[in-house]
Amino acid sequence: MIEIRNLTRLYGRTAVVDDVSLTVDSGQLLVLVGTSGSGKTTLLRMINRLVEPSAGRVLIDGVDTATLPAHLLRRRIGYAIQGHGLFPHRTVAQNIATVPRLLGWPRAQIDARVDELLHLFQLDPAVFRDRMPHQLSGGQAQRVGVARALAAKPDLLLMDEPFGALDPLIRAKAQADLKEIQRRLGTTLILVTHDMAEAVALGDRIAVMDKGRLLQDDTPATILTDPATPFVRDLIGTSDRALRLLSLTPVAALATPGEAPGPAIAPDASGRDALAECLWSGRAALPVEGGGIVTLDTLRAQASQR
Which residues form the ABC transporter domain (predicted)? Predict the structure, then answer.
């Protein structure tokens, strides 16, 4: 569990982070979202003490991080940034092995962990181990950057705009891969973004910041349907709020008994996926794999929730 208690960072008389408190449960994925200058990156960097707080405390599993040597604290916390930040003169394997090597892991254990992570990120070790960063695509480099952050099996992973440099198609795949891997490993993850759509797609919870202050900390569904302030409402936008709400609901939760013609949709597909298929195929209902149907009327009702 991560506890942030009354955290503040001053630069001169300006509070870049202003008395922020929140808790992140073990295994949760929290997204910090806000416009440029909102304080979200500074808040993230105070967790691993790349920026020292002016006031307040950060506790990880009840331990005040201020009581730990900063370099030892950072070795326990994975950290991934926009543009991957790989060492250009080191191979993929050497990049991933950076923290385990600092921690003194045996060579055989390091090699096994590198191969395990490459397989996890669908990068064949025989092909990618000895490649240099300049030989990777943007998506491949980003996956290696996240693999490096996870190499020492941290309980906490911090990510600062990790997908900002990727094109939209690669970005969507990288987001889906990250969420699946985070669920599989059970890693607690705090991610910074300025993109509300990304926050909704990834977060178990979303914390919205503006001018250094925390405005709202809640589930994506609550943020979408009950924004706490006009700023949060404006950040969400209104043009595709219904589609974002549909993206949070799996088809299985919307299915009802019945039969319908045509190809079936997977029960773990989102309501947004089902709506797109209904509109594309001109069908008023879709069969669901394993039984039942999801109807266009049900999807519209779900999207119109307030």
Answer: 2-236
182 and 145 Cβ atoms separated by less than 8 Å: no
- What is the amino acid identity at position 6? N
Cα-based angle 203, 80, 218 (whole degrees, multiple of 5): 20
Residue 243: partners with Cβ closer than 8 Å, 6 or more residues away: 272, 275, 303
Spatial CA neighbour of 204 closest among 193, 192, 190, 214: 190
SS3 state at 48: coil
Strands 205-210, 213-218: pairing is antiparallel
The per-residue pLDDT for range 182-219, each reduced to its tens digit, is 888 888 999 999 888 888 888 999 999 999 999 999 99
pLDDT tens, residue by residue, 255-274: 999 888 988 998 888 888 88
Kindly report the pTM of this predicted structure.
Answer: 0.81
User: How far apart are alpha carbons 62 and 71 in whole angstroms?
Assistant: 19
Query: Bridge partners of 256?
Result: 293
Task: Give the C-alpha separation, 56 to 39, whole Å.
Answer: 15
Structural domains of the chain sorted by starting position, each given as residue range(s) with its CATH number in brackets: 2-238 (3.40.50.300), 244-303 (3.90.1280)
Contact between 257 and 276 under an 8 Å Cβ cutoff? The reply is no
What DSSP assignment string belongs to 154-177?
A: -SEEEEESTTTTS-HHHHHHHHHH
